[in-house]
Specification:
The structure is a single chain. By secondary structure, the protein is mainly alpha-helical. The chain has one domain (2-104): Orthogonal Bundle (Major Prion Protein), CATH 1.10.790. 79% of the residues lie in helices and 0% in strands. It is built from 4 helices and no strands. The chain has helices at 2-40, 46-58, 66-78, 85-104. α1 (2-40) packs across α2 (46-58) and α1 packs across α4. The termini are far apart. The mean pLDDT is 90.
């Protein structure tokens, strides 16, 4: 029984670690996406960081990426910026990979 309990505990620790890394990578990705969108919106100075933070916080409204993508789409449309959903999704994928690599590198 001890070996089984040790294995179970190891799996639980790995699951918790994976969830923590996923959370950090998603938050980092959202910040990077926020910086990209802020540039598209013509923001500068403190407004850039404030917008990036607002995008990170937007992700807490519902599970998945829909809340972040909806905010990005609404903000770009309101500013009259023509950015396709495909471009936004590609950028999201690119930034996800970048965030994961940064987390793995300990940055």
């Amino acid at each position: 029984m001890t070996l089984f309990n040790e294995r179970e505990e190891a799996f639980e620790k790995q699951f918790a670690l994976d969830q923590d890394l996923r959370f950090k990578a998603t938050a980092r990705r959202n910040k990077l996406l926020g910086l990209w969108v802020a540039d598209r919106l013509g923001k500068s100075g403190a407004d850039v960081q404030a917008y990036a933070k607002s995008l990170v916080l937007a992700d807490f409204h519902e599970p998945g990426n829909a809340d972040v993508l909806r905010k990005v789409r609404q903000d770009l449309d309101a500013a009259g910026q023509s950015v396709s959903d495909t471009e936004i999704n590609l950028k999201l994928q690119q930034l996800t990979a970048q965030a994961i690599e940064a987390i793995k590198a300990g940055q």
